[in-house]
Amino acid sequence: MTLLRQTRVADLLGLNFPIIQGPFGGGLSSEPLVAAVAEAGGLGSFGAHHLRPEEITALVGRLKTATARPFAVNLWIPLGGEPAASVDQLAAQAALLAPYFEELGIDPPDPTVGAPIDFDAQLDALLAAAPPVISFVFGAPAADTVDRARRAGIRLVGTATTVDEAATLEEAGVDVIVASGSDAGGHRGAFLAPAEESLVGTFSLVPQVVAAVHTPVVAAGGIATPSQVRAAHELGAEGVQVGTAFLVSDESAASAVHKEAVTGPAGRSTVLTGAFTGRLARGLVNRVTREASGWDTQVPYPALGSMTSPFRRAAEERGRADLASFWAGQSAPLARLGPAAEIFASFAGAYD
Ligand SMILES: Cc1cc2nc3c(=O)[nH]c(=O)nc-3n(C[C@H](O)[C@H](O)[C@H](O)COP(=O)(O)O)c2cc1C
């Protein structure tokens, strides 16, 4: 079976193939990867939620130079309602994390909360820089954002982890909805109910979202082979968003140890954990994810992410898979190392 590639998603986003390379936040996206996927006829995406406004402006400028084809830049919409950690909780968390820092021989954890990111300033910079596509996770764009994007000719992509979230995104006026099943690697983007209550697998989520909205739907979560691309279309999706299989490409900014771990035997065992950032995310099972289930304190995002960041970075540099946060989806063992163009071509082969 071959698939028609000229779906509504391909038309709206200006693609030869309705294949989106999912954005990677926290520094794992790379400009060469975005450009390679864009040049191959898909939508390369750059996760920019950790960048300052002026960095976003410069990023979009460089990407426009790197490729004349469409690409997306992704931001995290503030969730709101997440409790701030108390001074006592932060101190207790620092004590729980201290052994990892000590083991790696780095300065002890700093219980001072990281500076919150100014989303409005990020968004203003991004809209002004006008990438061809902006994608969001953790929420629906405000009416004013949708208006500004339309006026600037920017297409908007929203991410849903439940049918209710998809309906909310449709109402907000996004052009394309990514239905992200709980198989997916990285953070769960739930925004209407707690992530723990929004864990629907891709196979179940996609047909339900397709039935509930008129907006074209892209399937995400656990897609790493051409047969899974075909299955996603069979379920009613008009495109796919692939994360883990591109995370292990030569061009991604993930470390060699991360890529080896994801595609090796460790890739068979992933878990949804809040241990590294305070928000639920899927990554490889290791000592930290196991030990965290016994913690009596787990401070919320973004405090935990800021506190764990130094030991995660040090663990990654030293190839310590037992302590690093190696994000990956449930199809990790199906991902293959190699150039992004080759990985893309294997997916593109599913289409006419
Ligand atoms: C390391 C990593 C970081 C991610 N960061 C983001 C992000 O910042 N924003 C976002 O919308 N999705 C993010 N995702 C989700 C991916 O874009 C994609 O939807 C997901 O990986 C698809 O599932 P798969 O990994 O099973 O292919 C991330 C995924 C991974 C593996």
TrEMBL record:
Belongs to the nitronate monooxygenase family. NMO class I subfamily. InterPro entries: Aldolase_TIM, NMO. Its cofactor is FMN. It comes from the Bacteria. GO terms for molecular function: nitronate monooxygenase activity; nucleotide binding. One of its GO terms (biological process) is response to toxic substance. Keywords: Detoxification, Flavoprotein, FMN, Monooxygenase, Nucleotide-binding, Oxidoreductase. It comes from Arthrobacter crusticola. Nitronate monooxygenase that uses molecular oxygen to catalyze the oxidative denitrification of alkyl nitronates. Acts on propionate 3-nitronate (P3N), the presumed physiological substrate. Probably functions in the detoxification of P3N, a metabolic poison produced by plants and fungi as a defense mechanism. SUPFAM superfamilies: Inosine monophosphate dehydrogenase (IMPDH). Signal peptide: none annotated. Gene3D superfamilies: Aldolase class I. The keyword Nucleotidyltransferase does not apply. This is Probable nitronate monooxygenase. It catalyses: 3 propionate 3-nitronate + 3 O2 + H2O = 3 3-oxopropanoate + 2 nitrate + nitrite + H2O2 + 3 H(+). Pfam families: NMO.
